[in-house]
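Worked example 3 (structure in, sequence out).
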């Protein structure tokens, strides 16, 4: 523990430290700000943040330290700095979505998740880098330069929540929020060696999350431990009258219920997620993780999810169709960048969008618009929706047959090199092959570190029934502890 910086402690450790006054909130904040400054100064800049909170935090921590000195009982995240993906609206800090079209834009209202974090006493440290409008798997599509992977700065941190994953992995913030439409929390978690949780669709309010694909988007935590992810989910989860798609399902104290063991839990291992050409290193680590689960008392079952092959095309049709509609609001009139043009209103729209959006966002808007256009709608969007149903049914059948959780790799590769895929969109899209099915089926899923290949972290994915995050987190926590017990260096 002595060798870890304050920002590398878990929420539980920080809370104990703050309560017992061994840790002061002011020192914790200073440690985070120093780590962020160092991450920019040493080597090529990490570039995890797009904006940082200013002096208002100093006042907040002063008040917190005074309250703690006086022995006051504070919220569950009192004094804990949180990094927020920059597509989640915050008052007082810009929300850019990694896009030049929203450069400098400050939202007049705050996302429900941010309001809840503040109510629990958390400090909003800053806004993290992402692929523009969350479209990407490497954070290279950001309008503000790529984030780098803390384990190898010549590599990508994954995406689109690459800034949040890198921030937690590099010890710039103990915890962070990301968003996941097709893997954007889990894949960067896997590439950066941290825990990433995508909750069930509807578990967490999307109010104040800038929409990419509304039927797929979900906010979730990026943390160092499963317990912290569980704790954060209890804080941010729950029905919200500002989001009609949020679900009125009770939110238990997940983190207090993790230690029950996994005796008799049925773990499905789908053959479609372990193709013959899967990277041998990743396949081996996944096999070892599954064996560990068996060793802990879980029952393993081979399963088949036969429509998996169609997931990438279905996802990219549904996501881009919704994106093309959601991004219509950036017209140079209502938000952000405006290219003044005397010619006509249409020219203002065209030129503002032309100048403000990056290449990938334009590609997606065109693909999505095409898929929704008259004459093609049923052939593309309609068919993708039917495939989505079939993919959801594959999972429903497995669960109906008694499977409790499913184990898969999170990504087919470790973190790739900057520039390696950015000019080949199809290659980039294929890196989402193991993550998009979960969003299409609206299930909860988590990625946790399961090992290393040549100094780069590898994640394993678990997924569960809708709203059964408790089982998901219990299995993930048992696996995490088992791995840590045999490989104490894993978290180092
Ligand atoms: N990589 C996927 C995409 O580019 C998923 C992104 C996400 O989850 N936001 O669409």
């Amino acid at each position: 523990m002595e060798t870890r910086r304050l920002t590398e402690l878990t929420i539980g450790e920080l809370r104990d430290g703050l309560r017992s006054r061994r840790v002061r909130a002011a020192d914790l904040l200073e440690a985070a700000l120093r780590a962020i400054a160092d991450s920019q100064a040493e080597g090529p800049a990490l570039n995890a943040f797009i904006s940082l909170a200013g002096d208002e935090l100093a006042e907040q921590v002063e008040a917190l330290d005074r309250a703690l000195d006086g022995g006051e009982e504070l919220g569950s995240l009192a004094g804990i700095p949180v990094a927020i993906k920059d597509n989640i609206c915050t008052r007082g800090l810009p929300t850019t979505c990694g896009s030049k079209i929203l450069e400098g834009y400050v939202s007049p209202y705050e996302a429900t998740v941010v309001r809840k974090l503040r109510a629990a006493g958390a400090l909003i440290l800053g806004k993290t880098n992402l692929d523009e409008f969350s479209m990407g798997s490497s954070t290279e599509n950001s309008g503000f330069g790529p984030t780098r992977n803390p384990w190898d700065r010549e590599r990508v941190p994954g995406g689109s929540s690459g800034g949040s994953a890198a921030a937690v992995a590099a010890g710039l913030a103990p915890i962070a929020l990301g968003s996941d439409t097709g893997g954007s929390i889990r894949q960067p978690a896997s590439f950066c060696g941290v825990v990433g949780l995508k909750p069930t669709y509807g578990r967490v309010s999307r109010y104040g999350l800038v929409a990419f694909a509304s039927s797929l988007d979900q906010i979730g935590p990026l943390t160092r431990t499963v317990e912290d992810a569980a704790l954060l989910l209890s804080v941010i989860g729950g029905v919200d009258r500002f989001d009609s798609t949020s679900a009125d399902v009770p939110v238990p104290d997940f983190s207090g219920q993790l230690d029950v063991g996994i005796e008799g839990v049925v773990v499905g291992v789908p053959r479609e997620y372990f193709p013959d050409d899967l990277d041998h290193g990743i396949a081996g680590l996944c096999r070892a993780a599954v064996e560990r689960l068996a060793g802990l008392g879980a029952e393993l079952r081979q399963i088949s999810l036969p429509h998996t092959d169609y997931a990438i095309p279905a996802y990219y049709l549904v996501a881009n169709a919704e994106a093309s509609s959601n991004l219509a609001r950036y017209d140079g009139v209502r938000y952000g960048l405006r290219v003044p043009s005397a010619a006509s209103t249409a020219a203002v729209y065209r030129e503002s969008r032309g100048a403000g959006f990056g290449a990938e966002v334009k590609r997606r808007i065109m693909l999505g618009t095409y898929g929704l256009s008259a004459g093609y709608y049923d052939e593309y969007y309609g068919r993708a929706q039917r495939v989505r149903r079939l993919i959801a049914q594959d999972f429903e059948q497995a669960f109906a047959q008694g499977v409790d959780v499913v184990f898969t790799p999170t990504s087919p590769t470790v973190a790739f090199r900057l520039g390696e895929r950015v000019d080949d969109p199809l290659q980039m899209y294929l890196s989402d092959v193991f993550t998009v099915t979960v969003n299409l089926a609206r299930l909860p899923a988590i990625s946790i570190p399961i090992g290393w290949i040549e100094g780069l972290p590898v994640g394993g994915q678990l997924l569960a029934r809708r709203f059964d995050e408790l089982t998901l987190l219990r299995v993930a926590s048992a696996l995490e502890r088992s791995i840590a017990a045999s490989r104490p260096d894993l978290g180092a």
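Notes: The chain has a mean pLDDT of 96. The pocket of glutamine is lined by residues 134-137, 160, 180-184, 212, 319, 432 (CB under 6 Å).
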